[in-house]
Write a structure and sequence with these properties.
Elements (H helix, E strand, L loop, with lengths): L10 H18 L11 H11 L14 H8 L15 H12 L5 E3 L27 H17 L13 E4 L6 E7 L2 E5 L9 H15 L2 E7 L1 H8 L4 E11 L13 H11 L7 E5 L7 H20 L19 E7 L5 E10 L4 E9 L7 H15 L5 E7 L6 E2 L3 H18 L2 H8 L9 E7 L6 H10 L4 H27 L4 H23 L8
Parallel strand pairs: 1-2, 4-5, 10-11
Antiparallel strand pairs: 2-3, 3-4, 5-13, 6-11, 6-12, 6-13, 7-8, 8-9, 9-10
Helix pairs in contact: 2-10, 8-10, 11-14
Protein name: Phosphatidylglycerol lysyltransferase C-terminal domain-containing protein
GO molecular function: aminoacyltransferase activity
GO biological process, one term: phospholipid homeostasis
């Protein structure tokens, strides 16, 4: 009996079923997320932020309990990484450097390393260096740094200027800093304290300055302090504005404006072109005296070049960039050899929950566009850190804003003199540079000059312009020359249109106006004895 014929399986059907099963398994498997491509500004900000991330294993040798506990709590504390803690030699060097720093502190008892009655309290390398310190010096300095960190504003940029002196109350709850000129203590910005302590610091400082024979004026006061001081009938003049960038929304950073700035920044960092590198440094993650000296050299070279250029130096602060490293972060550019050729400093503004960028400069002869790159990089870093406030500093107004506490006739005269000074300073270029980066007008604020009740005396005005580094005589007469040329041009145009000369009356009016301005200018630029304090 023969076997029944065997039925061959449908191989094609099996293969099709197998392929369908594979296809279903592939479709059900999760797809890897697409790789996110960062924009130029995002990548730049991320790279700079990575430079501020501390290696946790570098905490192994720290004696700070917070650092040590952080290290012990790491998942694998036995892993050994290179230690970046300072050596005994570097600690000894830092102590040596600290002992050479002159004290800038004055408490309400009047203790200071120079005579309080001197006209100008200067602290510079030629000053005799103190060798004796006590615990009060260190507690005062710690309190001062805390107050600056909490209440610092853009007008407190002078805290890094060694020519200023600090005053701090006995209970260490409030402070201010000032420079004495023409027997006037010109205070920078608002008092460093909460508004509730404004009366306290003013009262205590008044006792101190009266003993020293000093009057008082404020330069760069903010709107909060001005609101209070007007209730005390003090005189205020709006003379400048603070321009602020918002790194979270800035159109230049996000590519919708300022294409040339982004293009220049790319070219400077392109290895095939300029080949610069942009780096970040903070002494809190390990002090590098060699790098700090290189950055100081960049700053000093820039200052020397600017001084030689005969450009106006108004509102230029001379910094010791590393005087308060706890408040600072530094961004710098380096050439192909690794030598820094651009330098920017970011200072914490505790009152605004942001930063102030100043200075941001390049060495003479460095590639063009480094200042823009430093500013662009600072915005990128703050964007990564989700900080929305980057102050660009003072921007003087070409015309005085609101004036309170002064007769109408003197208001008019003050506006004319300010106009002449401003025209002689040629600072319009600063505004043009800021405008390229599209400041956030919603965050801008006004800055004020503040004087005691009544009409400001000549010494008050002279003290302020000296502290602002304005050469009064030079600026006023340059401004008067510019104004005269503008008037002459306008009159010539009018005569051309009307077809007749200005006449004797017009000439007489011009001569009378000039003589009146000269009389007022002469009173301002010629010191005169006064009994006001």
């Amino acid at each position: 009996m023969s076997d029944p014929p065997s039925v061959k399986p449908n191989t094609k059907a099996k293969k099709a079923k197998k392929d369908a099963t594979k296809k279903d398994s592939r479709s059900s498997a999760p797809k890897p997320p697409p790789e996110i491509k960062l924009s130029f500004s995002e990548q730049l900000g991320s790279d700079l932020a990575n430079g501020l991330v501390q290696d946790p294993y570098s905490l192994k040798e720290s004696l700070n309990l917070i650092d040590r506990v952080t290290f012990v709590k790491l998942p694998s504390p036995n892993i050994t990484n290179p230690i970046t803690a300072p050596t005994d030699a570097s600690i000894e060097q830092e102590l040596t450097d600290l002992s050479q720093e002159p004290s800038l502190l004055t408490d309400d008892c009047g203790s200071t390393d120079t005579s309080a009655s001197s006209d100008v309290v200067q602290h510079h390398p030629k000053t005799k260096i103190r060798e004796i310190f006590d615990l009060n010096d260190f507690t005062a300095l710690a309190s001062l740094q805390e107050l600056i960190g909490l209440y610092g504003r853009v007008s407190h940029m002078g805290v890094l200027d060694p020519s200023y002196t600090f005053y701090i109350t006995k209970d260490r709850t409030a402070a201010l800093y000032y420079k004495a000129k023409n027997k006037i203590a010109v205070v920078g910005g608002d008092p460093l304290c909460p508004p509730s302590l404004f009366p306290k610091i003013l009262t205590e400082f008044e006792k101190f300055r009266k003993k020293a024979g000093l009057g008082i004026a404020f330069m760069g006061a903010g709107e909060t302090f001005v609101e209070y001081i007007r209730t005390q009938k003090w005189t205020t003049m709006c003379f400048a504005t603070e321009r602020v960038l918002n790194p979270m929304t800035n159109p230049v950073l996000h590519g919708s404006a300022g294409k040339s700035i982004t293009r220049t920044s790319r070219n400077l960092l392109d290895p095939k072109k300029e080949g610069l590198t942009l780096k970040v440094y903070t002494p809190l993650l390990g002090k590098s005296p060699a790098l700090q000296q290189q950055l100081v050299n960049v700053y000093e070279e820039w200052r020397d070049h600017r001084n030689d250029s005969k450009l106006p130096q108004a509102y230029i602060t001379v910094y010791d960039p590393f005087a308060m490293p706890e408040l600072m972060t530094y961004i710098y550019t380096a050439d192909r050899a690794g030598t820094p050729n651009g330098f920017a400093a970011l200072r914490i503004l505790g009152c605004n929950k942001g930063y102030h960028l100043d200075p941001y400069v390049a060495s003479p002869g460095a590639p063009k566009g480094i200042s823009e790159l430093l500013l662009f990089g600072a915005m990128a870093l703050l964007n990564t850190a989700q900080i929305s406030y980057l102050s660009l500093g003072y921007e003087p107004l070409d015309d005085l804003g609101e004036i309170h506490g002064m007769p109408k006739s003197l208001k008019s005269m003050s506006r004319k003199v300010h106009k002449m000074i401003f025209q002689g300073l040629h600072v319009a270029g600063k505004k043009d540079f800021h405008d390229k980066f599209h400041p956030d007008e919603a965050q801008s604020s006004m800055l004020y000059l503040v004087f005691p009740p009544g009409i400001p005396g000549l010494r008050h005005m002279q003290g302020v312009v000296h502290v602002a580094n304005i050469k009064m005589r030079e600026a006023i007469f340059k401004g008067a020359k510019v104004k005269g040329e503008e008037k002459k041009s306008a009159e010539a145009e009018r005569e051309k249109v009307e077809g007749r000369p200005g006449g004797l009356l017009a000439t007489s009016e011009r001569l009378f106006s000039k003589s009146r301005e000269r009389l007022h200018v002469s009173a301002l630029v010629t010191p005169r004895k006064s009994q006001e304090v």
